């Protein structure tokens, strides 16, 4: 990621203070909408900083923190498009990821969309997943 974009992302994360403060339950509604739209039981809102992925809202699981290198959303963080992957185990971008391989989880279906600040920073993604491929 270009240094200027990474700096803008860090500044946006700090301005919103979502990773260190108390959980904002209003954001769980966004995760619920994402899960409903995708027809899956699990969805999260992820903030990705320079070292970690912070699940700041979730439905279907308890939000956690993982390393950025394990994050599925970090792979497409700079991508402005919605991504839908029917079976992540068959996609070279994610097949070896610990969320797919069984080390952390067994994600098959994965969809994510960028969450963009008014200033244009893509510091987060909303993601949906399930352990079954979706056709």
TrEMBL record:
Protein name: GAF domain-containing protein
Source species of the chain: Arenivirga flava
Composition bias type Low complexity, residue spans: 121-135
PANTHER family: GAF DOMAIN-CONTAINING PROTEIN, SLR1143 PROTEIN
Cross-referenced InterPro entries: GAF-like_dom_sf (IPR029016)
Residue ranges, annotated region (Disordered): 115-135
């Amino acid at each position: 990621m270009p240094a200027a974009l990474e700096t803008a992302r860090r500044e946006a994360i700090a301005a919103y203070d979502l990773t260190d403060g108390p959980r904002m339950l209003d954001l769980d509604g966004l995760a619920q909408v994402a899960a409903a739209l995708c027809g899956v039981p699990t969805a999260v809102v992820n903030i990705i900083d320079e070292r970690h992925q912070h699940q700041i809202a979730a439905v279907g699981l308890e939000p956690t923190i993982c390393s950025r290198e394990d994050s599925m959303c970090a792979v497409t963080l700079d991508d402005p498009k919605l991504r839908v992957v029917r079976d992540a185990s068959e996609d070279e971008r994610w097949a070896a990821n610990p969320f797919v391989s069984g080390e952390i989880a067994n994600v098959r279906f994965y969809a994510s969309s960028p969450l963009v600040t008014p200033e244009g920073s893509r510091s987060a993604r909303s993601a949906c997943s399930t352990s079954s491929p979706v056709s």
